[in-house]
């Protein structure tokens, strides 16, 4: 209940913010299905048991949604807020003990694994090129991640949570094939010695009107970290559809 209330409150605040900005604002809703490509976990990173939330425990495709609000100043400068929750569950058993975050889960025990990676992002982007058929911009995203990996069985449970800040490079490229159709490449990505993160969408777009644009495409979310606390690298595939409304 608390989780649902928090999500609803955030959405209502963002919707109010977008409405208040009127002509200079854009609101974007994205939804669809997300599939696990891989999800390898070892916690602690130096002593835990390595296991997979994709291959050892089996995940199901999950419904997802994302909400983004943009505010453009003098055509070239765009500020953006993104709320992107993600949660998947995996179930199954493994033929060996798993030592996970201080708890030993015996072999052949039915397990439930939960992977949560909620993302809150503030982006500034400068559109370097703004032409009738081509747009390209670069920027910087300040990302706050609210992550949790949990494992449970009939009598045992353990979880690792992490809230952290990550700066990421933002980019956007839009090729307008004609007045209606376009191709969009949009995302955030960065690699460093501590880990990496990529969240990239490629989609076909269609203008329904001056205000409404729809799209359909593929999103990839990948990244992770390797340190004494946590070893986790995960890949997710998104079948994505979206709708954008521009306040005129």
What's this model, at a glance?
By secondary structure, the protein is mostly beta strands. It has one helix and 15 strands, in the order αβββββββββββββββ.
Structural overview:
8% of the residues lie in helices and 68% in strands. With 248 residues, it is mainly β. The protein has one domain: OMPT-like (Lipocalin). The strands form two sheets. It has a ten-stranded antiparallel beta barrel. The radius of gyration is 20 Å and the shape is elongated. The chain starts with a helix and ends with a strand. The model is unreliable at 18-23 (pLDDT under 50).
Keywords:
248 residues, mainly beta, Lipocalin, 10-stranded antiparallel barrel, two-stranded antiparallel ribbon, 8% helix, 68% strand
CATH architecture, by name, is Beta Barrel
- Whole-Å distance between the termini? 36 Å
Radius of gyration: 20 Å
What is the count of structural domains?
Answer: 1
Portion of residues within helices: under 10%
Q: Which class best fits the helix and strand makeup?
A: mainly beta
Mean pLDDT across all amino acids: 91
